[in-house]
Amino acid sequence: MDNHPLFKKFVAFTAAVHQITNDITKDVKPETLTPVQYKILEYIAVSQPVTLSEISDCMHMSMPNTSRELRKLTEKELLVKVTDPADRRKQGITLSPEGQAMIDEVFRGAAQRVGERIEHLTAEQQQEIERALDLLQEKIFYV
C-alpha cells in the first residue's frame, strides 16, 4: 500500500499544528520568557514530572543547553525539582505554583482563541473534531 499521500497530508498537518500553536499563543506568552523557555514550560505542563533528558530530547537541545535553560527557569521560580522517592538519584522537574499559574493564564488565552475558531461550528462538527483528535492521539501521537 502506498502511504505517500497520507504521509504528505501528515506533514502538512503537523506544519499547520506548529503554525496554529504559534498563532493562538502569540501575545499571551509572557514577555519575560524566551520562546525556548516558554516551550520548555509548556512541555513540562502537559508531561510533568519530566527529566532533564526528556526535555533535552523533546526540545532537540543539548543537555548542557537544556540544563542552563532549566536553571534560568528555576531562578525565575517557575520550576521545582522533585526527588524520586523510589530512586533518590532521579529528579523529576515540575512547575512551581508560580509556573503553573503562568501556564494556566497562557492556556486561558489560548483556549479563548481556539473557542473563537470553532464557535461557528455545529455541536456535531465539534464532536467530530474531538473524535478526530482522539483518534490521532491514540493511533499517531501515542507515547
Q: Mind explaining what this structure looks like?
A:
The chain is mainly alpha-helical. The protein has a domain at 29-113: Arc Repressor Mutant, subunit A. Helices cover 66% and strands 10% of the residues. It has helices spanning 4-25, 35-47, 52-59, 63-75, 97-118, 123-139, and strands at residues 79-84, 87-95. Strands 1-2 form a two-stranded antiparallel ribbon. A hairpin with a 2-residue loop joins β1 and β2. α3 crosses α4. The two termini are 25 Å apart.
- Name of the CATH architecture of the domain at 29-113: Orthogonal Bundle
What is the residue-mean pLDDT, rounded to a whole number?
Answer: 91
Global Rg: 18 Å
Q: What's the CATH class of the domain at 29-113, please? A: Mainly Alpha
Number of strands: 2
Tally the helices: what do you get?
6
* Order of the strands making up the biggest sheet: 1-2
Task: State the secondary-structure class.
Answer: mainly alpha
Residues in helix, %: 55-70%
Indicate the CATH topology of the domain at 29-113: Arc Repressor Mutant, subunit A
- Coarse morphology: globular
Quick synopsis:
The chain has 143 residues and is mostly helical. The protein is 66% helix and 10% strand.
